[in-house]
């Protein structure tokens, strides 16, 4: 117990030098669940770093709203920084504020509306290629679909060759970043050359060349194109200055990396959960039939698709693709009414808090209804603020929240209106890397929904 009454529980006993790192490294999700079982504030050691795990929504809210003031975001690894340059995710302080305010207008709801048509079109193209009885690898299909949408909405490229060149290089870089994030690479000093870091450098060089070609084409041509890059080219800071070519490159790559795998993994988990919960799949189909009838959805249907939105929210609760947020305490940091020594690393995990029975009734059940206004005679589930925070919160809340929600809802609406996907595997486990990914390919059989074989 601290002087101010905050109860801090001791974590599991660690080993010399490494602290609790071996248990954390072996299974971080189970480790955080174990810490949550010990209390809302738990001390542990990440190597030599004194760490504090927090599990209570109120404290998570305090942390998120204080980032950029009494807490600093933890530094991202070298592979990340090589690829993202000085983009908004990597920067801090005044530099971060400037960048965030320059990028934000390009992902406002009004702009997302203009990307929605591309999202739906790409999903319809995929639907046209699927047939009853076909076997598909959902992980591959969703990754290819969200990649195409990202390349088109961010860079505005229409040719398959351009989309493929960028996509391939991004895939290589993203894989290495994920490997470094979850592996021993995270512990190595920046100057240590590893084969993975060399691969990131090579992929980054390809991306740089592609992006600079695309930027030059945009500068020469029509400035009124409906893509994110055009909006960034038009953006001005408070002094009237435009973003430099290097800044444009860093922000477009950041938006791509921030948005691609997070959204595609969310969709894979949604299909997996729908396949295991036929009652929910049926309720989803019923909403799509009622709202859309025989047509494909557009942006204007988003608000009406309340159950589809709830399916996405509930998927993000059980499988939060960003599963960990960590920050470092600065002088004057306070959590739960008690001071936190400067340098302490704070850890919170969406995985642990989203599955806490104190905030969610039957926490392991996939029940989208918990997000809807209850019907007659049903009791509303009171979900505290920050008990669900898949997009973070506070000043650094995800810039792509609206983009991601609209994209996931439209893709599900296009595909689930026509098909059911029967996932073959009994149980698929989450693998925590940069995002929470299924631990293997997710094979499924496509089944036409009765009476809905073609749109
Ligand atoms: C389901 C999909 C997504 C999830 C779960 C997600 C989650 C998050 C989270 C948790 C953060 C805050 C991280 C922190 O505080 O440490 C974040 C930041 C960010 N996200 Fe997303 N995101 C998603 C989709 C997107 C999309 C589609 C875009 C771009 C179009 C995007 C762009 C960003 C950017 C630029 C930031 C950094 C904001 C800043 O540092 O000020 N995200 N995201």
Automatic annotation (TrEMBL):
Family: Belongs to the cytochrome P450 family.
Pfam families: p450
Cofactor field: heme
Keywords: Heme, Iron, Metal-binding, Monooxygenase, Oxidoreductase
UniProt cross-references to SUPFAM superfamilies, sorted A to Z: Cytochrome P450
Entry-linked PANTHER family: CYTOCHROME P450 (PTHR24305), CYTOCHROME P450 12A4, MITOCHONDRIAL-RELATED (PTHR24305:SF166)
Natural source organism: Streptomyces roseicoloratus
Protein name in UniProt: Cytochrome P450
């Amino acid at each position: 117990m601290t002087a101010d009454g905050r109860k801090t529980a001791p974590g599991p006993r660690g080993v010399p030098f490494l602290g609790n790192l071996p248990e954390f490294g072996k299974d971080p999700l189970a480790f955080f669940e174990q810490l949550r079982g010990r209390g809302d504030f738990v001390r542990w050691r990440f190597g030599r770093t004194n760490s504090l795990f927090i599990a209570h929504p109120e404290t998570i809210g305090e942390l998120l709203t204080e980032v950029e003031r009494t807490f600093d975001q933890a530094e991202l690894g070298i592979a990340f920084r090589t690829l993202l340059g000085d983009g908004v995710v990597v920067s801090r302080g005044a530099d971060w504020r400037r960048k965030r305010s320059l990028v934000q207008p390009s992902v406002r709801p009004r702009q997302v509306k203009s990307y929605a048509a591309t999202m739906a079109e790409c999903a319809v193209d995929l639907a046209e290629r699927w047939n009853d009885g076909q076997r598909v690898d959902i992980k591959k299909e969703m990754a290819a679909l969200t990649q195409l949408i990202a390349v088109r909405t961010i860079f505005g490229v229409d040719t398959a060759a351009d989309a493929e060149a960028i996509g391939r290089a991004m895939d290589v870089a993203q894989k290495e970043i994920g490997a470094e994030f979850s592996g021993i690479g995270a512990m190595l000093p920046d100057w240590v050359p590893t084969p993975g870091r060399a691969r990131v450098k090579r992929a980054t060089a390809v991306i740089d060349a592609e992006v600079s070609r695309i930027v030059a084409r945009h500068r020469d041509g029509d400035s009124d194109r409906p893509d994110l890059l055009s909006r960034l080219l038009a953006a001005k800071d408070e002094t009237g200055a435009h973003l430099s070519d290097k800044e444009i490159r860093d922000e477009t790559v950041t938006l791509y990396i921030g948005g691609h795998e997070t959204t595609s993994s969310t969709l894979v988990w949604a299909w997996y959960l729908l396949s295991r919960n036929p009652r929910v799949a049926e309720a989803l189909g019923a909403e799509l039939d009622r709202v859309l009838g025989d047509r494909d959805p557009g942006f204007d249907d988003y608000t009406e698709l309340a159950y589809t939105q709830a399916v996405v929210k509930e998927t993000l609760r059980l499988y939060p693709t960003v599963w960990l947020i960590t920050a470092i305490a600065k002088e004057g940091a306070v959590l739960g009414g008690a001071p936190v020594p400067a340098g302490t690393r704070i850890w919170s995990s969406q995985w642990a808090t989203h599955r806490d029975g104190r905030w969610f009734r039957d926490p392991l059940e996939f029940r989208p209804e918990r997000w809807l206004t209850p019907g007659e005679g049903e009791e509303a589930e009171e979900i505290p603020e920050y008990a669900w925070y898949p997009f973070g919160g506070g000043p650094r809340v995800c810039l792509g929240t609206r983009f991601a929600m609209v994209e996931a809802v439209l893709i599900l609406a296009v595909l689930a209106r026509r098909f059911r996907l029967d996932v073959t595997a009994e149980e698929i486990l989450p693998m925590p890397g940069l995002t929470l990914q299924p631990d293997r390919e997710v094979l499924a059989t496509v089944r036409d929904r009765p009476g809905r074989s073609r749109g």
